[in-house]
Automatic annotation (TrEMBL):
SUPFAM superfamilies (UniProt xref): GST C-terminal domain-like (SSF47616), Thioredoxin-like (SSF52833)
Keyword field contains Transferase: yes
Stored PROSITE patterns: GST_NTER
Annotated CDD domains: GST_C_8, GST_N_GTT1_like
Residues in GST N-terminal domain copies: 4-85
Key words of the record: Transferase
Record Pfam families: GST_C, GST_N
Entry GO MF terms: transferase activity
Protein name: Glutathione S-transferase
Annotated family: Belongs to the GST superfamily.
Gene3D superfamilies in UniProt: 1.20.1050.10, Glutaredoxin
InterPro entries recorded: Glutathione-S-Trfase_C_sf, Glutathione_S-Trfase, Glutathione_S-Trfase_N, GST_C, Thioredoxin-like_sf
Length: 214
């Protein structure tokens, strides 16, 4: 991949962007970091709001085009590097289930998680995007009880997304630390790519805290 085709990842350590960086490492993708110190509020400054008006990371820029939203980013990057084997091809029978589980993260898990974190009463089941929290998690537990990964024995980008998310949400008590979820998260967090990025994040976060007087 030529220099102009390198991926720029708008990034802050120990954030949702961490999983995207882990995915880039797993894909063997050439990328550069545009680091934001979120402790200093750089994500809310005009320079970054011109890139993502929501002031959120991750975001990626590639070939002059900007991609935001984790679901879109994971799908895009995995498709960009098919030889890494982390995405089913368009004509693969597992393509639909793969997209299902990636979309489930954004459409069901994240809204449920925020309601739980904020201790808000969810909308009535008939109006809720995720039915109810226990049902939403139960669907995942049932799927992950069948095999090591969401698509069976085959790890995909969807598992990077979910494995990293589970590792964080279990740490903060938002997802129960049952045997199924713990084993699944450990399959991802024990991989070299996650360990490398986790160590780098710890160092970067400490630098940001010091720079912000924290």
């Amino acid at each position: 991949m030529t220099a102009e085709n390198r991926i720029t990842l708008y990034y802050s350590p120990q954030s949702r962007a961490t999983g995207t960086r882990v995915l880039l490492e797993e894909l063997g993708a050439p990328y550069d970091l545009h680091v934001l110190n979120m402790k200093a509020g750089e994500q809310r400054q005009p320079a970054y709001l011109a890139i993502n008006p929501l002031g959120k990371v991750p975001a990626v820029r590639h070939r002059g085009a900007l991609v935001t939203e984790q679901v879109a980013i994971y799908t895009y990057l995995a498709d960009l590097f098919p030889k890494a084997g982390l995405t089913p091809a368009l004509d693969d029978s597992q393509r639909g289930p793969y997209l299902r589980w990636i979309a489930y993260y954004g459409s069901s898990f994240e809204p449920a998680l925020i309601d739980k974190f904020m201790k808000r009463e969810p909308a009535p089941v008939s109006h809720s995007p995720y039915s109810d929290y226990d049902t939403m998690l139960g669907v995942l537990e049932a799927q992950l009880s069948k095999a090591p990964y969401l698509l069976g024995d085959r790890m995909t980008a969807a598992d990077i997304l979910w494995g990293v998310a589970f590792s964080w949400t279990m740490m903060f008590g938002l997802v129960p630390q049952n045997d199924v979820f713990k084993a699944y998260a450990e399959r991802i967090t024990s991989r070299p790519a996650f360990k490398r990025i986790s160590a780098a994040d710890d160092e970067m976060a400490a630098q940001h805290a010091a720079a912000s007087g924290g």
